[in-house]
Structure formats: structure tokens, C-alpha cells
């Protein structure tokens, strides 16, 4: 995308805690997922030192904690996995290896997110705020100043934390609805006399529906985090604003989520196989593979956060275009009626 776009957006409109001017935002062209990725790469090249500093100081500690699970008691994961497996079996699902793996993975995700929450609400939250601020500075044609950002961060920290707590509540609610739904579906089919071998297929359809709903939830939540930094909105207001902005841009958001999910899963799988599980050699390769995979995971987090920030500007631009079209239509109707 043409770099002259940056000069058309005023620093005050992009960085301040007030809603930007419509005349400034209309200059931002809408972008699809591929164009958002290209724009992210352009912004990363433009200010590489800033984003690499964010990666090293804020993202890498969180990535190391999430990948290594050194804060997690594996006994808790085992107990929770067994209880989830018991819930699945009593609901009518067969006791297969696939179901056990899903229960264990879900238990690990829940426990990991719980134990790493202090890192997530401090380092990762501050990193995402830094990234959103830096992307906005790039569009504003303004140099990123650490002192200016820290001053802004102190003013909006409560807003960031409030929005993040609401985001966590939305994700937990989505997960709770999924568990409740799959239990109801499996119990209903079991009560009708269907065998576990057949119940597993409706359960898989439920998992598929949950995956789509979860993806939409993550898209809205990521956008809400950016809104809490760049706009005067927090908590439920940021989530509602995010829902309104994402309308018409769902496809791009889903593709961004899919790409990020593939990247996270790939690095997590490598870390599980190459570092946690000693499946070959004497394990000496862990010395250099551990920091390399942590760096790879951190880079995926960085790119995902940058794409969310660029996606915010795209959604806002589309919303402003739609609003301008409605205003023009009203004006035409007024002319015809007069």
C-alpha cells in the first residue's frame, strides 16, 4: 500500500484518546487478509528496531512461560484432564484416544492460561498496547517515543485491564457454552438410545460449530484490545464497538485468525517434539532449539498483534465509508423530496 497514506492521517487523530476525524480515516483504503499481511510486513520493515525491542523485552518472557509450562503443576493438568474425560464418557462419548487427547489438551490450555495469567495481564497486555501504539504512529508519520507511550500507558492502564478482563470473560463464556452444549447434545442422544460410536459424529459437528464461534470471539476480542488503546472506550463498550466494526470484514478476520492459529500450533508442536520430548540423540540440541522456538513463537505473537492493529484501521475505514454512503443516500433523498 502506498506509504503516502501515513502522511494523510494526523498524529492527534491516530494517537489521542478521542475518536478520529472522519476526514482523516476515509483516506485509509480497505484491505483483505493478504493485503493486511503485506501492510504488516511494510510497517515491520519501517520501524524494525522498535518492534524487535517489544519482542525481546515484553513478548519473549510470555512465550517462554507459555511454551515451557514451568509455572504449571502437571498433576493439576492430569486431574483436570481425567475429570473432563469422565464428563465426556458419562455424556455418552466413547473412551477413544482422540477424545482423551482433546480432554488433555483442553485441560492443559485451561491450566496454562490460569497459571500464566499474571504474565498475560502485564507483559503481553503491555506488548499489545505498544504494538497498537507503534502501528498508529507509523500511520501518523510520527516517531515512536517511549516516554510518550509510557505516559499514555499510565493514563489508559485501567482501561486496558478492564477491557482485557472482559475479553477473558467472553472467551471463558464461549468455552463454557461449548462444554454445556456438547454435554446436552451427547446426553440427549444417549437418552434416545444411540450408541457412543454414533454420538461422536454430532459431537464433532458441535466442535466444528464451536471452532467457528471461538474464531469470531477471538477476532472481536483482539479488535477490542486495540480499541482500548486507540479510542476512548473500554470494557463492554470496546467489545460492542469491536462487534460493530468487524461487520463486513469477517472473512479477513477469519483468515487472520486461521493463519495465526496455524503458526502457533506449528511452533507449539515443534517445541513439544524437539524440547519437551526427548525422541532422539542425547538432547544437546535443546540448548539452541529452546531459545530459537521461543523466538519463533514470539515473532508469531508480534505479527498477530500487528495484523490486529492494521485490521482495526481497515475495519474503521470500511465503517466510515459505509457511513459516508448512508449520508449521501439521505442527502439524495432530501433533494428528491424537495
TrEMBL record:
Q: Does the keyword Transferase apply?
A: no
Q: Which residues cross the membrane?
A: 51-72, 84-107, 119-140, 161-192, 198-231, 252-271, 291-313
Q: What keywords are assigned to this protein?
A: Membrane, Transmembrane, Transmembrane helix
PANTHER family tied to this protein: EXPRESSED PROTEIN-RELATED, OS08G0107100 PROTEIN-RELATED
* Protein name in UniProt: Uncharacterized protein
